[in-house]
Amino acid sequence: xxxxxxxxxxxxxxxxxxxxxxxxxxxxxxxxxxxxxxxxxxxxxxxxxxxxxxxxxxxxxxxxxxxxxxxxxxxxxxxxxxxxxxxxxxxxxxxxxxxxxxxxxxxxxxxxxxxxxxxxxxxxxxxxxxxxxxxxxxxxxxxxxxxxxxxxxxxxxxxxxxxxxxxxxxxxxxxxxxxxxxxxxxxxxxxxxxx
Length: 195
What we know:
The protein has 195 residues and is α+β, with helices and mostly antiparallel strands. It contains six helices and eight strands, in the order H-H-E-H-E-E-H-H-H-E-E-E-E-E. It has three domains: 1-40 and 79-101, no CATH class; 44-72, no CATH class; 137-194. The strands form two sheets. Strands 4, 5, 6, 7 and 8 form a five-stranded antiparallel β-sheet that branches. It has a three-stranded antiparallel β-sheet with strand order 2-1-3, with no helix packed on it. A hairpin with a 2-residue loop joins strand 7 and strand 8. It comes from Escherichia coli.
């Protein structure tokens, strides 16, 4: 089994970066990060006992990088941001197209058209009243505005069957009221109303 030294690995990474050309930016970026990590120099060292204190803001245990005593841990600055050249270069469309060596996968838009027609169909089927329905509204869903005259479905006091009648809901008294020829009287059970 052979051992690869850091120098051999750095040389190998540099060869891979130069052989990539402009083809694969992700692979190039990965090699550049690895190269930066391998060639990074520590800026300071810290005693292993002082590592916990650094978490709380104390930096008295950090020494210059030339004091590499046994038991000291090297400290590195975070990896610098490497901007790939291909992202900063401004290519015209023709130049970019000439660099493409593989087939370009293009969505013909069939899925988009199907989605659009689906939602158009849903909108047409919704009818002409998306906000206020043209039919009966359940009292458990929504109540009318305070003292707004509406058609009601329910019973009034003295009635034996459910029927329609004109009435309103009084929010302050929390009660339905029936409008009759003799005036107004409370309604006993209202289940639905219609504007």
